[in-house]
Amino acid sequence: MVCGCKDTKIFCIFAASNQYLTFMQETRQNKIARLLQKELSIIFQEQTRAMHGTMVSVTRVKVSPDLSICTAYLSIFPSERAQELLQNIESNQKAVRYALGQRVRNQLRIIPELRFFIDDSLDYIDRIDELLKK
After folding, report:
1. How confident is the model at residue 14 (pLDDT cuts 50, 70, 90)?
2. CB 2 within 8 A of CB 8
3. What pLDDT, on a 0 to 100 scale, did the predictor assign at position 24?
4. Nearest-CA neighbor of 68 among 108, 23, 27?
5. How does DSSP classify residue 105?
6. CA 78 – CA 56 distance, rounded (Å)
7. Segment 27-41, tens digit of pLDDT
């Protein structure tokens, strides 16, 4: 950015560099979120393979700016067992975090704290489709 005044020129350069740092930070967050989503999906796929008729998908992952907290949204099929499986996942959170740490130990220095939530957007879409068909 170019300004007419010398004092504001320094401010404009600082603002532009700050915007660039923010952009770079978001890019890194997104890369780490994609990595964690992929690895968590593989972990849940391996763990639910023995449970026939049950599927856990990681639909979205958000990472805090300091990379210390990972919020994962899970889509669980069948949805009737979602609460039960979520409680099971939360009770085994340390084992999941350890397995995640084993998989990403070369990419991340600190493994983030994991938080899991049910993503019920598919149930919501099904409910809307049901109502529209009536």
Report:
1. very low
2. no
3. 55
4. 108
5. T
6. 9
7. 889 999 999 999 999
